[in-house]
From TrEMBL:
Residues 153-227 form the PAS domain. Residues 270-300 form a coiled coil. SMART domains: HATPase_c, HisKA, PAC, PAS, REC. Residues 309-529 form the Histidine kinase domain. This is histidine kinase. Its EC number is 2.7.13.3. The keyword Acetylation does not apply. InterPro entries: CheY-like_superfamily, HATPase_C_sf, HATPase_dom, His_kinase_dom, HisK_dim/P_dom, HisK_dim/P_sf, PAC, PAS. The modification 4-aspartylphosphate is found at D70. Residues 21-137 form the Response regulatory domain.
């Protein structure tokens, strides 16, 4: 057994497994022995090769940190060994120090050009070898640590970029995509591989180069041409299928030594944000509408109180008129010449004044009863009397509109359990609506009809029928909605209030279009158990 085989057999395990490996390559056994003796005991794991071919095999297998390489060897010389080590990615990071008797400058330059980091001339001094080896190993360790740190940073950067919700594009100076994260690919509907190399602007504009779209992407071109950072709050990007989606994006130029080399585009899909903003704006608009409605209702309430006061004030002079007419009649009875035709006419006029004053007083009384805000009290009510009183309330409007109100209400209908004031409000509103709908109609001579009948044993159904202009096409959806009206000066609350009143009485309110023109409104009232 040769001496170096004996050495390997004796010392192959004296160094720990994680010790730095040094490969000694020389075809001269004496030189190898000197190197072994020089480096032994310093914590390195020493490997030996007697020629270039063996050195390459050991280097691929063991991956030493450093190779002390002789140049002049039979077969493959040290230059070729170094060249092959540096060309192979698996061994390119191995540090190479040449050991050679060649000390000409051109030999040293050639050695450094092939990839070696140092050159030790033979014969060498042990201290020099140790110093140079330790220096190069220290440099190697630093390079390895730096390389590992760079790899970690790259991995961290990649993880951060991949985990971001924002899309990120890296562009070269021509606007071609050099990098895209997963979010960018997902939002645009492309794979990352298909994005790389494409021109970002031309890709989103499409083959036709849609000019209408280009304005949204113009800031990217400005950043690439002029090196100016741009941010756009609300614009559009396009999916692969050509559909647009709203984004916020910024474009930042990349400068290297004051030279523009590309740009980074960061963007965020703001579809959900815009949807939320629109929903918020809609809610604010609805809130404003509700405020207006509350103000409207407040005004109507004030008007109701004023109407009650007005009715009270008017009732007093009407009472006085009636009393004066009575007094005038009594005074006329005491006069002579009662057989004068003029006397009879005046007496009759006074009698009519008295009658009409009482009638006006009754109307005012009904208005006051209708306008005041009583407690919601259900009682047993005769539907015939209830509807008759309601029609009397509407007689003034009927005369003003030169129209008649007809009743078809049987007297034997069962009593209903309702709040009479509220039901009068419903019926009166429907009657007045019917007259307004017919005021310019060719069928106004027909008048408004109020009918009632037993319905489903437990209810009395009331129908108010007009032959007016009918309802709008969208009436089914909006008719009972507060403040919806088709009248130029309408307030749009009557039917909504009526609907609520009937519901509070456990009844139903509906309508249907009259087959001959006009509308039929219907509501039900529960009969007394």
């Amino acid at each position: 057994m040769s001496w170096f085989k004996m050495y390997l057999a004796e010392h192959s395990t004296e160094s720990p497994e994680d010790a730095e490996r040094i490969l000694l390559v020389d075809d001269n056994p004496t030189n190898l022995q000197v190197l072994l003796q020089t480096l032994n005991g310093r914590g390195y794991k020493l490997l030996i090769a007697k020629n270039g071919e063996s050195a390459l095999r050991i280097a691929h297998k063991a991956k030493p940190a450093l190779v002390l390489l002789d140049i002049m060897m039979p077969g493959m010389d040290g230059y070729e060994v170094c060249r092959q080590l540096k060309e192979d990615p698996a061994t390119s990071k191995i540090t190479v120090i040449f050991l050679s008797a060649l000390d000409d400058t051109k030999d040293k330059v050639r050695g450094l050009e092939t990839g070696a980091v140092d050159f030790i001339s033979k014969p060498f001094q042990a201290e020099e070898v140790i110093a140079r080896v330790e220096t190069q190993l220290k440099i190697h360790r630093l390079e390895q640590a730096l390389s590992a740190r760079n790899r970690q940073l790259e991995a961290d950067k990649a993880n951060i970029l991949e985990s971001m919700n924002e899309g990120i594009f890296g562009l070269d100076s021509r606007g071609h995509i050099t990098f895209a994260n997963a979010a960018a690919a997902s939002m645009l509907g492309w794979s990352i591989d298909n994005l790389i190399g494409q021109g970002l602007i031309s890709m989103m504009l499409g083959e036709a180069g849609n000019g209408a779209h280009s304005q949204h992407l113009a800031p990217i071109q400005v950043a690439l041409n002029k090196g100016v950072s741009k941010a756009v709050e609300d614009t559009l990007f396009w999916h692969k299928d050509g559909t647009a989606f709203p984004v916020y994006y910024s474009c930042t130029p990349i400068l290297e030594d004051d030279r523009l080399t590309g740009a980074v585009v960061t963007f965020r899909d703001i579809t959900e944000r815009k949807r939320n903003q629109e929903a918020l704006q809609k809610a604010l608009d609805e809130l404003d509408q509700q405020k207006e409605k509350l103000t409207h209702v407040s005004r109507l309430s004030t008007m109701g109180e004023m109407a009650a006061g007005f009715a009270h004030e008017v009732n007093q002079p009407l009472t006085a008129i009636s009393n004066y007419a009575q007094v005038a009649k009594r005074m006329m009875n005491r006069l002579e010449h009662q057989d004068d035709p003029m006397y009879e006419s005046i007496y009759e006029a006074m009698d009519k004044i008295n009658t009409q004053a009482r009638r006006a007083g009754e109307i005012i009384a009904r208005i006051r009863s209708f306008v005041k805000k009583p407690d919601h009290v259900l009682s047993s009510v005769d539907p015939h009397k209830l509807l008759s009183d309601t029609v009397k309330l509407a007689e003034v409007d009927a005369r003003n509109n030169h129209m008649e109100i007809h009743m078809d209400v049987p007297t034997d209908l069962p009593a209903v359990k309702v709040d009479p004031v509220q039901i009068q409000q419903v019926a009166l509103n429907l009657i007045r609506n019917g007259m307004e709908a017919m005021c310019d109609s060719e069928h106004r001579h027909i008048g408004v009809w109020v009918k009632a009948e037993r319905f489903e044993e437990r209810f009395v159904k009331v129908s108010v029928i007009d032959r007016g202009y009918g309802l709008a096409d969208d009436a089914e959806e909006k008719l009972f909605t507060p403040f919806y009206t088709t009248k130029p000066d309408g307030m749009g609350i009557g039917l909504s209030v009526c609907h609520s009143i009937i519901q509070s009485h456990s009844g139903r309110m509906s309508f249907q279009r009259h087959p001959e023109g006009g509308t039929i409104f219907e509501f039900t009232m529960p009969v007394v158990d």
